[in-house]
Amino acid sequence: MNEIIEQLKTRVGLDDDKARSAAQTVIDFLKQRLPSSLSGQLDSVVSGGAAEGLKEKAGNILGRKTA
How far apart are CA 43 and CA 12, in angstroms? Predict the structure, then answer.
C-alpha cells in the first residue's frame, strides 16, 4: 500500500494522511466489488505479495493473457 500512497502523493499532490485515506478508500471499494476469489487476495497484493498470481487471475477473468 505504501507504493499506492507514494503515487498519490506524487501524482496528485496529497499529503501523507490524505493519500493514505484515499488509498484505503479505493482498496475498500475494490474489495467490495471484486469476485470473492480476488477480493480475498487484495490485501496480500497491496502488502506486496502475490501480485503476479492476482495479475494472472484478473487477466483470465477479463479474457486477456498476461505476460
Answer: 23
On whether the CB atoms of residues 59 and 66 are closer than 8 A, the answer is: yes
Amino acid at 42: L
Cell numbers linked to 52: 503476479
pLDDT in tens, 10-55: 999 999 999 999 999 999 999 899 888 788 788 777 776 555 555 6
pTM: 0.63
